[in-house]
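Sequence only, no structure available. Ideas?
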Amino acid sequence: MSQVKYIIFIAFLLLANCNTFAQKTERDYIRKGNKLFKEKSFVQAEVNYRKALEKNPNSTEALYNLGNTLSQQQKLKEAMQQYTSASKNEKSKAKLAKIYHNAGVLFYAAKHYQEAVQSYKQSLRNNPDDDETRYNLALAMKMLKDQQNQNKNKDKNKNKDKDKDKKKKEDEKKKQQDKQKKDDKQKQQPKPQPEKNKMSKENAEQLLNAAMQDEKQLQEKAKKQLRNQGRNLDKDW
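Reply:
I predicted one. Tokens follow.
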């Protein structure tokens, strides 16, 4: 074997050993993480799964297990991100069924029933014989229907309230318009003017008495004139 070929062969062996070491290290972290997960040491389990992903970012097992660990810590959004990444890389239908099943559980817990239904359906497409997933799907569909009915009732109540407010505003506006019309009409009507020539009862009585007095004086004057004229008349024939 030439020296060049020997060097290439040695380099190939070293590279193969490095890959083997890397895979072994990844598996070691996953095994340790699984052990800690069973012991419910979720924080330490998370640390080991993340170290496994540092060695192999595409490890669907590490992604899936990390998602489970985060879920146990109520880090639901981060857990969902791990499940999503795992579902993109995983080829095994059995494992995909588990990934989508767990994603459905998280969506259901967050009351995102539409997404839960879709996740459970995806799980059943990969494993149609999973009765637990089928039960969870039925429950999620029921909760989704109830949620939709509640939303419809809320919308109806909102519309009723809007109609009431609208009618109330229209009534108030009509009242204001009617009041304005009434005020305008009153302004347009002429105010009664006092009668300048209208005399009081006392003045009328005074004038009447004065007229009667004048008439009496005239009658007396007329009688007096008649008497004077009678004196100058000729005697009867």
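The domain at 94-153 is CATH 1.25.40 (Serine Threonine Protein Phosphatase 5, Tetratricopeptide repeat).
Hope that gets you unstuck.
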